Amino acid sequence: MKPFTYERAHSAKDAAAKAAATPGAKFIAGGTNLLDLMKLEIEAPSHLIDVNGLGFDSIEPTKDGGLRIGALVRNTDLAAHETVRRDYGVLTRALVAGASGQLRNKATTAGNLLQRTRCPYFYDPNMPCNKRRPGSGCGAIGGYSRQLGVIGTSDACIATHPSDMAVAMRALDAVVETVKADGSARTIPIADFHRLPGDTPHIETALEKGELITAVTLPKAPGGAHFYRKVRDRSSYAFALVSVAAVLHEDGTGCIALGGVAPKPWRRSEADAQLRNGAKAVSDVLMAGAKARADNAFKVTLAERTIGSVMAEARLAEKSA
To answer: Could you say which of 25, 94, 133, 151 would form a disulfide bridge with 19 (CB–CB 3.0 to 4.6 Å)?
Structure first.
């Protein structure tokens, strides 16, 4: 690990300004992803700004009936929160499906959104990676791609976003709140928060230099039945091959987002409109334009079958009610 300096932030505005003005500065909160990357020298910040003391650790109702989740709320606390469990069950299910209990106790809401890819070629500094070193090439393209993306990828990068929580938040149409380096605040719909790789895969989010996440807001509870189905190579502590976050209503409407298939939580409103026509119709729209490789072509079929499984479970729940 390379040497770095450290300070504790005293306000969001000052933290954002300092991060923007200090080359190589990074924010740190739970550190569950950043420290791993620092040990491998994939991340080598010159300066760490600890934001744990900023107080963004509460979950509060909003005036319009939604829920505001502080950026520093730990994943364990968010999953267990009474309102989240009752009204946003898809979020609780996704959080519990991710990582281990120890990691969830430290990982924060903002940090979860900002996780770097788990592409094995990104984690191996001996391999080329356009995300780690722009312009160096992509070892995954032409390499082993079982875990990697089939939709939304580019000729520069085929990594997938690893977060389970973000997939549920995409289904819920969450909004990310931030403070910029000039002290102004802004909101970013989660649909626009994560970027597709294109030819700049090292730029992963819409955040500007120094911009700090302060909260995530959920709209009014959507009702319906909530599901998060994660298909993975082992029963615990593994990233999704395919995951499905769904909110389904008895009238056949609802929404579905996918994880494990794309560089960002994947949802298309046109696919939601196909819910009454069955899993294949939904999957066909979600996966339109998919560019699978020999090792991960199964993900296209797996996505359809996982969506079908969730829809069947919803129908069974309706009959049992």
So the answer is: 25
* Whole-number Å distance between alpha carbons of 185 and 278: 41
Walk along the chain (321 residues) in steps of 10 and give the mean pLDDT of each run.
93 97 96 94 96 97 97 98 98 94 95 94 95 96 95 97 97 98 97 97 97 98 97 87 97 97 97 97 97 96 98 90 75
- d(CA 260, CA 36) in angstroms, rounded, equals 21
Answer yes or no: are the C-beta atoms of 25 and 19 closer than 8 Å: yes
End-to-end Cα, the chain, rounded Å: 56
In DSSP notation, 87-128 reads H-HHHHHHHHHSS-HHHHHH-BHHHHHTPPP--HHHH-TTS-
What is the distance between the alpha carbons of residues 287 and 294, in angstroms, rounded to a whole number? 16
User: How many Cβ atoms from other residues are within 10 Å of residue 202's Cβ?
Assistant: 14
| pTM: predicted TM-score of the whole model, two decimal places | 0.96
Residue 183: count other Cβ atoms within 10 Å of its Cβ.
12
